[in-house]
Design brief:
binds pyridoxal-5'-phosphate, alpha/beta, 2 domains, 3-stranded antiparallel sheet, TIM Barrel, binds iron/sulfur cluster, 14 helices
Length: about 425
């Protein structure tokens, strides 16, 4: 069966019936015409009186913006359309769950310079703009997104972030994110990437953008030419549902891949959208076809106003159980829970190791076959003294269990361990 990629149809939608193809394919036109109010939205999808009332209540607290392209992808009648759920505000957003947190990942706390989060030893997250082409209803950074491009991210503040990266030689990987960095002009992005490239110890640059999904027209030839100058550049995008993989999205991703960009996908596990192993499997297959490698599936964060999207963590484990072994390893991302309080991403997966002794490890596979792997009788230790990589200070783990494994310390203790108060003084 030949797979058809459909272009999004917009001519049959009243709001867009007079839009020319040239306008439609112009990302700046798309941005200018993002849907921000109810009367405009009503010209795209059916809304009854109650829905409109609810929408207007939600809009008092949270802003709406939907690109015309993404709006045209929504089902006109069905409220449970996944694209619609990710785009159209819901009354549930006003419900603040007692477990919601304002900055669940402590991105503002672990921040040595404005817009910069340096959580992991060798990589940093740089938020270059709070703006996005559309406001995803499930956004984890909704505390920032859509703020007027404030002084926080101006050129001077960016300079402070660059300064920090310059004087921090451990940082070899910079994740450029936001908001959506691709809302910035090619010139501004060129400037940011050039400044990062000037820093010797920055080995790779990553960009996080949802544009290939919500505004694929943004991926122009000019943009690709600009990015090419700064390789190695990786782009992680954010598809959540197979319906988002359209002809336009395919063209955008192929352009990026042809420009030598390595493409990854970070999906979020969302109730009612993709909390189904078969939807997820289909999404992973669709992504590979357009040359995007599934990278992460995130457990939904504890950000305010998105609790209606949360699933149990066990759903993520079930999804991985349905992928690993059942389909290409390339189609299996890592399921992660981003630990509240700044603990970072923690991978979670089914248990495959059943038991072990000195001689054997007992494993189970995806079919429930239980297998014994005979361990080698005797293995000489790796000689760290003569290994030049082990002698390389930059490569050695400085924290955590990895460090515990490698040196003489015998434990890692929590800071506020009460037992400490009871020990002999
Ligand atoms: C996710 C994230 C990164 C990148 O993590 P990887 O696991 O390397 O993709 C870096 N910094 C912060 C603060 C992050 O949240
Ligand atoms: S594009 Fe990303 S940062 Fe912007 S609203 Fe969507 S999820 Fe949030």
């Amino acid at each position: 069966m030949k797979h058809e990629y459909k272009k999004v149809e917009y001519k049959n939608i009243p709001l867009f019936k007079d839009v020319t193809e040239e306008e439609w394919n112009d990302w700046k036109w798309q941005l200018r015409h993002a849907i921000r109010d109810i009367p405009t939205l009503e010209k795209v999808i059916e809304l009854n009186h109650e829905e409109k009332e609810n929408l207007s209540k939600t809009l008092e607290k949270f802003k709406m913006a939907i690109t015309p392209y993404y709006a045209a992808l929504m089902d006109k009648e069905r409220k449970d359309c996944p694209v619609r759920m990710l785009a159209v505000p819901s009354l549930d957003e006003l419900f603040v769950s007692p477990t919601d947190l304002d900055d669940p990942l402590h991105e503002d706390v672990d921040s040595p310079a404005p817009g910069l989060t340096h959580r992991y030893p060798d990589r940093a997250l740089l938020l270059v703009t709070p703006e996005c082409s559309m406001y995803c209803r499930h956004c984890t950074r909704r505390r920032l997104v859509g703020e007027e491009a404030n002084e926080n991210m101006g050129k001077n503040k960016l300079e402070l972030a660059f300064d920090y990266i310059r004087k921090t030689p451990e940082i070899r990987d910079v994740v450029v994110s936001g908001g959506d960095p691709l809302i910035l002009s090619d010139d501004k992005l060129d400037y940011i990437l050039s400044e990062l490239r000037k820093i010797d110890h920055v080995e790779i640059i990553r960009i996080g953008s949802r544009m290939p999904v919500v505004l694929p027209q943004r991926i122009t030839d000019e943009f690709c030419e600009m990015v090419k100058k700064h390789h190695p550049v990786f782009i992680n995008t954010h598809f959540n549902h197979p319906k988002e993989v359209t002809a336009e999205a395919k063209i955008a991703c192929e352009k990026l891949a042809n420009a030598g960009v390595n493409l990854g996908n970070q999906a979020v596990l969302l109730k009612g959208v993709n909390d189904c192993p078969n939807i997820m499997k289909s999404l992973m297959h669709e992504l590979l076809r357009i040359r995007v490698r599934p990278y992460y599936i995130y457990q939904c964060d504890l950000s305010e106003g998105i609790s209606h999207f949360r699933t149990k963590v066990s759903k993520g484990i079930e999804i991985i159980e349905n992928l690993r072994g059942h389909t290409s390893g390339l189609a299996v991302p890592t399921f992660v829970v981003d630990a509240p309080g700044g603990g970072g991403k923690i991978p979670v997966m089914p248990n495959y190791l059943i038991s072990q002794n000195k001689k054997r490890v007992i494993l189970r596979n995806y079919e429930s076959v239980v297998a014994a792997y005979d361990q080698p009788h005797y293995v000489e230790d790796h000689d760290t003294e003569t290994c030049e990589y082990c002698q390389n200070e930059r490569l050695r783990a400085k924290d955590g269990v990895a460090k515990l494994l490698s040196n003489g310390e015998i434990s890692i203790l929590p800071e506020n361990l009460r037992r400490k108060d009871r020990t002999k003084k």
